[in-house]
Predict the structure.
Amino acid sequence: MKVLGVLGLSAALLSGAPAPAQDAAKAQAAPAATSLAMVIPALNVSDVAASSRFYVDALGMKLLAQRHNETFLSLGPDAKQPVVMLMRDPELKQNPVITQGTGFNRLVLRVAGLTEIVARLKAGGYKVSDIRDVSMGYRMAMATDPDGYRLELVEAGARPEKK
């Protein structure tokens, strides 16, 4: 009888038929699949103008729009590219302190022209590491914006030939 039960279950699985439930908890329907997408990261900043200079002048992002206390920046020439929102709550005396353990660690941005970007950051007096080679032909540098948000800037290079 057990063999027939296992064979019946195997046949049901292979045929696409639903398998019998093992208990009442498993018999409940699974939640419906949802479509999820990240909209945009929103960064609380202490000075929108200073942060805009960092992201636009030094990193090369494009200003899309400004309204109220929010500035929208694009990683490319238009809003079809990923967007970052800089925001300032005028009711706060100061922004909440960024502390390790809040779950946010850094933004990772793929860039072209890493050498030039790092030079602009250094010329602007911003905190940025030297460029280092990582793996598979990639180069990277770490930068910190005026509010302490960390950014990992990654540039893809020619991949090394396989030997």
